[in-house]
Amino acid sequence: MRVSFPHMGNSYIPLSALLSNLGAEVVLPPRPTSRTIDLGALHAPEFVCLPFKVNLGDNLRALEMGADTLAMVSGMWACRFGYYGRVQHQILRDAGFTFDSILLGRDDLGSVFRKFRNTADGNLAAAWLRAFRVFRRKAAAVDAIEREARAKRPLERDRGATSNALEAGLSQVHRARDTREVDTSLAEGLEALRSVETDERDEPPLQVTVLGEIFAVLEPSLNFDIERTLGESGVATHPVLSVYRWLMRPLKMDLGITLDELRARRATRPYIAYVLGGEEHQTISGTINAARKGHDGVIHLYPFTCMPENICRTVLPRIEEEYGIPVLNICLDEHASPTGVSTRLEAFIDLMRQRRKSAGGRSTSLERSPG
Ligand code: SF4
């Protein structure tokens, strides 16, 4: 079985581990590029949201590389994500490709479980258990390494040193074959990041919360690697979403994530009374929390035609006003240019620096927060 799935940030690391431990051969398409987006846009409906086009492009490239099975997470979301898998696979079949589908969240769990009965080594249940343990450990390792890199990057002495250490650490985790190797590569990756040389700064880095639609926040090809751009400009980023949270949330195995979701829904209710089916609760509550934590600003990333985030976009000015925190909204589509995004980021960084200066180095958001 030659299985593939679309990219989203570094989720390919735990997902590859899950599938290869079940005996499948993982066909990993290259990280999305403009060619991927062009390919997807060519076959996708014009006004579908951008992540759909990127995923479709990834799937096309995987099929060209010989994948015979495509896996996709589906769900019961009210937004389009619930239909991504089925519609994308139908488009690909209409285009003449033949392949098997695994639609997690749509197919019944029993059939997904049995799909690997001919590939898994020995007892199928034991293979799933083993695969899941490595999957979870790798997801946590990726999260820990990404967090360390985020804290280090704004202070690094040599531009790019953190990103190099991050890349090396992640590929070591990716290569690890079992949980013991994952632990070793995590420890080495963290050590390499901690030994990146830093500079003394006159003042602490600007603190920015990054939120919005999950794919726009987590996929660097879509957001022009905003985390790296900001980090290398001396800004510390705090994304409210992560690959680890996205993978663990539906499994309900992390009480912290479940409670955080409930708190986020509660904080969002005064602004949006209904569940829209995306990350709207994380966007609204994340903006409020950013102000309460005294962050200097919020960056809201969302794809053009994204229903939940466009609704948030209309609510955010009110929160911006009530809590006194600046929000930069960046709408992304296949025509967005890296120059356009970096110019807006530069202007936003200037604005945050000025605000901090005029407040005498204190956070202005904390002073005005009604909470
Ligand atoms: S959250 Fe937005 S971009 Fe993501 S699938 Fe739903 S509508 Fe599309």
Spell out the helices and strands N to C. Answer: EHEHHEHEHHHHEHHHEHHHEHEHH
> Could you tell me the strand content as a percent range?
5-15%
Instruction: Decide which structural class fits the backbone.
Output: alpha/beta
Overall tally of domains? 3
Q: For the record, what CATH class of the largest domain applies?
A: Alpha Beta
Q: Count every beta strand, where a strand is a DSSP E run of 2 or more residues.
A: 8
Helix content: 55-70%
The N- and C-terminal alpha carbons lie at a distance of 54 Å
Shape: globular
Biggest sheet details: 4 strands, parallel
Q: In CATH terms, what is the fold-level topology of the largest domain?
A: Rossmann fold
Bound small molecules, by name, code or SMILES, are: iron/sulfur cluster
C-alpha Rg (nearest Å): 21 Å
Structure write-up:
With 371 residues, the chain is an alpha/beta fold. The protein folds into 3 domains: 2-120; 136-200; 203-368, Rossmann fold (3-Layer(aba) Sandwich), CATH 3.40.50.11900. 56% of the residues lie in helices and 11% in strands. It is built from 17 helices and 8 strands. Strand 1, helix 1 (12-21) and strand 2 (25-26) form a beta-alpha-beta unit. Helix 1 packs antiparallel against helix 6, helix 2 (34-43) crosses helix 3 (50-64) and helix 14 runs parallel beside helix 15. It binds iron/sulfur cluster. Residues 49, 51, 79-81, 213, 215, 278, 303, 306-309 line the site of iron/sulfur cluster.
Set down the secondary structure blueprint.
Layout: E1 2-4, H1 12-21, E2 25-26, H2 34-43, H3 50-64, E3 69-73, H4 81-94, E4 100-104, H5 109-114, H6 124-152, H7 161-175, H8 179-194, E5 206-212, H9 214-218, H10 220-223, H11 226-232, E6 235-239, H12 243-248, H13 255-268, H14 280-292, E7 297-303, H15 307-323, E8 327-332, H16 338-358, H17 364-368
Parallel strand pairs: 1-2, 1-3, 3-4, 5-6, 5-7, 7-8
Helix pairs in contact: 1-6, 1-7, 2-3, 3-4, 6-7, 6-8, 7-8, 13-14, 14-15
The chain binds iron/sulfur cluster.
